[in-house]
User: Fold this.
Amino acid sequence: MKTIKFHKSDCGVDVLLNVLIGQDVKESYLNTDIYNTDFFEIVIFKKVEGTLILNQQKISLTDNSIVFISPFQKRKWKLEADNLDFTVLVFQEDFLNDFFADKLFTYRLLYFYQLDFPLSIPINNEDILKICSILTEIKTELVIPKPDSSHIIRSLVYYLLQKFNREYALANNLSLNKAENNYAYQFKQLLEIHITDKQRIDDYVKLLGVSRISINAAVKKQFNVTATHLLKQRLLFEIKNQLIHSGKTVAEIAYELHFSEPNHMMRFFKTQTGITTRQLLADYQNGIFS
Assistant:
């Protein structure tokens, strides 16, 4: 599978961010190959007909909509060439870390690393036009940089990411309340880093240096689920991803994810999904997505 990497040289300003105009990158999005990237991708569609398979989620794309894609998520576009008008904001996590003091900023955005809610939202025409106007302004600062361009880019990107977060929360009835501590977001970040080698809450208790009760209380308050639920969902996501895209056997995946036996992973999978790993693969091959 091809991984597309971010090329900083494409920009006039030395930042890990770019704005891609649909007409310039249209052919890439009309390619139906499966691929992933090492950067975040927010695609704003004014006009679109088609579908996106994003990991195990099939998204029917509609006019005036936004799709949120996190690094290394597998995707396959199937778009109609006619009547296609879109703009893409792409950036690496280091861009946010360099520009903002909050190193957990990415994990506070509800639409990235999201497992429980759709990875796209509808948005009204007026807001789409405003968003695209701001993206055009960012593009201008990138292509024709001035001494203060980095400050302009920082402020505009921060506004957009927070605007998207508000719209995403509204579309999915999620809370925007700020956490009183970082444990919930630190836990979420650590899951992304360690899920392939750590599948017990106690592992994360040691990494965070706080009690199991503290982690669970923080996660429950911020995400309205238990820490165990969040861990199981992330582990399940990893198993599905490996089954569908890695080409490895069930046994190979089970041992890689530190299950003592393949049967234990298969039992965990069926308990969480209600189907077998074999059924998942059959459904995926038949175009059925859960």
